[in-house]
Amino acid sequence: QVCAQLCRRPCYCPWVPPRCPRGSPLVLDGCGCCKICARRLGEPCDFLHVCDQSQGLVCDYSTAPAGTRGTCNFEDDEEGCEVNGRVYRDGEVFQPSCKLQCRCLDGGFTCIPLCQEDVRLPTPDCPYPRRVEIPGKCCPEWICEARDQHLLRDARAVSPVLPYPCQEWGTEWSACSATCGVGFATRVSNQNRYCRLETQRRLCMVRPCPALPAAFPAVS
């Protein structure tokens, strides 16, 4: 009876079909009448506004009060995750880009980098290493580039002109060298006036060191 009320004949559909967001295909509505955008994982649905069956989604009314809309969910109640408009099943491994490999798990996802985050410090045979994007390759690579030596000798220069724009890069700061009191943390970074990789240090203190007990005998 409800279907007979909702599905009126003949069909009256808009001339121009709707523009759907990425990952939502055009499908026929529940009456098999007009083209609509399929609902995605977690979106509201009902008899007319159907879920994307190509992703294994159905309209789940289990948690909805009677007479209200349901929610698009997997038919077997298996959790999944949606990334860039695409739905992945629980446990599925995928690559959103050539630099990342991800795994769908319990409705979320975790990723690991596929490109090595190595550091190349200046050496005599490569005094000016630089990390650049190589055409046709996914991961950036280190190259050795000859630069004018006077830029390094002229310490009085306020803003030396580099032959290319400096893309800032650096590692995370390391753990403090001391568990109490003042220590040092280090990192490798090119955030300096010459855009050159160097090891940088800064002071750190996790917590103050506990004072010796007052009754502790002094040692001469």
Structure notes:
The model is unreliable at 149-159 (pLDDT under 50). It contains two helices and 14 strands. It is elongated and about 80 Å long. Among the domains are: 26-74, no CATH class; 81-113, Ribbon (Complement Module, domain 1); 119-145, no CATH class; 169-208, TSP-1 type 1 repeat. It is mainly β and 220 residues long. Its main location: secreted. It comes from Tachuris rubrigastra. Belongs to the CCN family.
Keywords:
single chain, 220 residues, mainly beta, Complement Module, domain 1, 3-stranded antiparallel β-sheet, 14 strands
Distance between the termini: 99 Å
Helicity range of the residues?
A: under 10%
Number of helical regions: 2
Provide the succession of SSEs.
HEEEEEEEEEEEEHEE
Oligomer description: single chain
Estimate the mean pLDDT confidence. Answer: 78
Largest sheet: 3 strands, antiparallel
Number of strands: 14
Based on CA atoms alone, the radius of gyration comes out at 30 Å
Strand adjacency order, main sheet: 3-5-4
Q: Strand pairing plus helix content: what structural class? A: mainly beta
Keywords: Cell adhesion, Disulfide bond, Secreted, Signal
GO molecular function: heparin binding; integrin binding
Organism: Tachuris rubrigastra
InterPro entries: CCN, Growth_fac_rcpt_cys_sf, IGFBP-like, Insulin_GF-bd_Cys-rich_CS, TSP1_CCN, TSP1_rpt, TSP1_rpt_sf, VWF_dom
